[in-house]
Specification:
2 copies of one chain form a homodimer. Chain A has 11 helices and 7 strands. Chain A is globular, with a radius of gyration of 20 Å. Chain A starts with 19 loop residues before the first strand and ends in a 16-residue tail after the last helix. In chain A, helix 5 packs parallel to helix 8. The first copy, chain A, is an alpha/beta fold and 270 residues long. In chain A, 41% of the residues lie in helices and 11% in strands. The first copy, chain A, has a 7-stranded parallel sheet with strand order 3-2-1-6-4-7-5. The longest helix of chain A has 19 residues. At the A-B interface, helix 1, strand 5, helix 5, helix 8 and helix 9 of A face helix 1, helix 8, strand 8, helix 9 and helix 10 of B. Strand 5 of chain A pairs antiparallel with strand 8 of chain B, so a sheet runs across the interface.
Chain lengths: 270, 270
């Protein structure tokens, strides 16, 4: 080994500071433990679990954490990926294969560089999705993401396990963070809304589209909804912009069939 | 996992090309297997073993290699570290703690950059030492090295296992070696529509918003239009997605006041 385990200090540099690591439907508790170890090596402490197959907490995770108990003890559990990212404003999805979606794609190194430019408040609202050991992320998970992260290793033999994937992504975060921590600058003027607020917009839009008979034929609804959500995710809309989008949907549909009056549009952003 | 295991190809890019990975007195055969897996992920195939505790070959290594059998089968075994590096011209030693020696020290990233500048013939004479799981490298091993490699992770919790250390060092080799890998940022498979097509969508949307009385009061229209356009520009929508957006606007507004029928939504993207 390169560095030996030392007694965990009371605190670590950057603790609670980096992106949340979201393990989506992990199967083995041992892998959750190994991922926690990989995380803490990189100074990451915010673990989230979506529907872990074997329940949580699970005693089998602890031995594999090799002392990263604090990460496991603070892990938050969610039923769905949507819930796990509801309070995040920028979500990354790790995936090997190019999906048939228009998404920004970065390498793990590009991911580190991206995060390095964000102030602490923005980092706290950032998370990275990792799929299950065997199957990876579903398309429905990837849709929730703003950016796809790939690790461009040997195309003829790519077989990273879950903890190794977490390690490489966390490593790039740690490298980029330590290099640029001193001169982080402001990231844009208006912060993206939380994913939960985006979800409310989607429901509004889809409800009106249902009422308008947009989803036709019905069996295509799932794919159409996915593509529309994917498109709007890319806007990284601010809370104010989401208000505008709500206003647009309400205005366009509100007088339909002589129904509700058009809601006044919210003030412009900024 | 990020990338799934694929059938091992007959050859891999850079096979036999990168540095030799020298495991010095490894204890568990499982860890040798895991290290082989990490190596092949990074396109590294030249494994050397110095006095493996449980003998070699050892059947327990193979399951952990997850298909990187060729690395294990080609592993060369030596009695001493001196013998293992005898044909090498530049040796790196991975170690956490600064040793009481005057040696050049580089980070894993610096290691990658160092190797990237070497021609193939020089690379073939390069190797990296990794110590035993618990104890690391002896000073006697480090003395044999030209350069020390450190992985600057969380100083309060550094607990990389052998395979993880091999993975991170191999990863930096692979990143530096592959010119395309560094931090390429790309978009997905479907290209953004031309701006002229986006303009047509804006006109469609704004026409319907005008009809719905959305822009209120009128003096705010210019700023509101600008903000809405800005928002949709960020989607970098493909031609197919623009079709979907047209469909949404048409569906939401089409039946308004009993007017036009809702246009059938276009097929899903791609």
């Amino acid at each position: 080994m390169i560095r030996r385990a030392e007694p965990a200090a009371a605190d670590t540099s950057g603790a609670g500071f980096g992106p949340a690591i979201v393990l989506v439907r992990p199967q083995l508790a041992q892998n959750i433990g190994a991922a926690a170890r990989a995380m803490l090596n990189c100074g990451l402490t915010r673990m989230r679990l979506v529907a872990p197959r074997d329940g949580w907490p699970n005693a089998e995770a602890w031995p594999m954490a090799a002392g990263a108990d604090r990460v496991l003890e603070a892990a938050a559990v969610f039923d769905t990926t949507e819930a796990a990212v509801a309070d995040l404003a920028h979500v990354f999805a790790t995936t090997a294969r190019p999906r048939d979606m228009v998404k920004r794609v970065v390498t793990a190194r590009g991911f580190g560089a991206d995060l390095a430019g964000r102030p602490a408040a923005a980092l706290a609202k950032t998370g990275v999705l990792f799929g299950a050991e065997r199957s990876g992320l579903d398309n429905a998970d990837v849709v929730l993401a703003d950016t796809v992260v790939t690790i461009p290793l040997n195309p003829a033999f790519s077989s990273l396990n879950l903890a190794q994937a977490v390690l490489l992504v966390g490593y790039e975060w740690a490298m980029a963070h330590s290099e640029t921590a001193a001169d982080a600058v402001a990231y844009g003027t208006s912060a993206p809304a939380e994913k939960g607020a985006l979800e409310l917009f989607f429901r509004h839009l889809e409800q009106e589209l249902d009422a308008a008979g947009f989803f036709h034929p019905p069996e295509k609804r799932t794919g159409m909804v996915r593509n529309i959500r994917n498109l709007f995710h890319r806007t990284a809309a601010s809370g104010s912009e989401l208000g505008t989008l709500h206003g647009i949907v309400t205005a366009l549909s509100g007088r339909r069939l002589g129904g509700r009056p058009a809601r006044r549009a919210p003030d412009t952003d900024g």
